[in-house]
Amino acid sequence: MKGAKSAIAKAQQLEADPDQQEDAETLPEGIEPSSSPLDFFANCRQAKVKTMFVERSNRQNTYRAISVAKRWPEFATERTDGSGVFFTKDDVETALTAELGKEPHRQTVKRVWEKLQELGGDDLIEKTRQVGRKQTQTELLAMDSDTAEGLVEQRYVGLDLLENSDRKATTGGVTPVVVESST
Question: Is 69 a residue whose pLDDT tops 80?
Fold first, then answer.
C-alpha cells in the first residue's frame, strides 16, 4: 500500500520545503495534499485528533481550533460574492459555545483564535473590517471557499496518518503535514 507522504514539521514552519523533509511517503492517487496543518488535522479522523491533542498532550485549544474551523458552515460568514468565508471573534466564541456546551472564557477564545492563525498558515488571512468611521474595526480570519470546502472533505480518514506521528507531535511540539508527492 502506498502510504501517505507524511512529514514532521514544526508548527512554526508552516511553509516547510517538502523536498527537504524526511520520513516521507507518497499519497495514494487522487488524494489531495494538505495546504496547512489546519487542513491536515481537519481531514483526519476526529477521534484520533482528539486523542492526540486532548488526551495525550493537554493541548485542548489546538483541538478546539480545528473543531471550530470545521464548523465554518454553521458559524462563519460567507462572502456575498461566494469567494470565501470569514470568522470574527464573536463567531469563534459562538462556535466554542456550541462545542463546549457552555460559554467559553475570554482567554479561551483568544487562545483558540491564535491557534487558528498558527495552524492555518497561508490558508487563513487575518484582516480587519470597518463599515463606517464611527464603527470600531473588527478582526477577521478569512479563507477562500476552496480552502473552506477542503476542511470538511475528510480525505485522510482511513489512511491512519496520525498513527506514527502522535508521539512525536505530543512530545516534540511538531505537527505532521501531508504534502504533494514529488514523483
Answer: yes
CATH code of the domain containing 71: 1.10.10
Counting beta carbons within 10 angstroms of the beta carbon of residue 35, is it exposed (0 to 12), middle (13 to 18) or buried (19 or more)? buried
User: Would residue 79 count as lying in a domain?
Assistant: yes
Confidence of residue 135 (pLDDT cuts 50, 70, 90): confident
> How many angstroms separate the CA atoms of 100 and 47, rounded?
16
Closest CA to 7 of 54, 56, 52, 40: 40
Report d(CA 176, CA 40) in Å as an integer: 8
Please check whether residue 104 lies inside any domain of the structure.
Answer: yes
Q: Which residues contact 12 (CB under 8 A, 6 or more apart)?
A: 118
pTM of the model: 0.75
Could you list the residue range(s) of the whole structural domain that residue 68 is in? 35-171
C-alpha cell at 40: 491536515
C-beta of residue 176 within 8 angstroms of C-beta of residue 162: yes
Residue 176 in any domain: the answer is: no
Position 16 in a domain: no
Mean pLDDT across 91-99? 96
Question: What does the alpha-carbon distance between residue 63 and residue 45 come to, in Å, rounded to a whole number?
Answer: 12
Count of domains forming the chain: 1
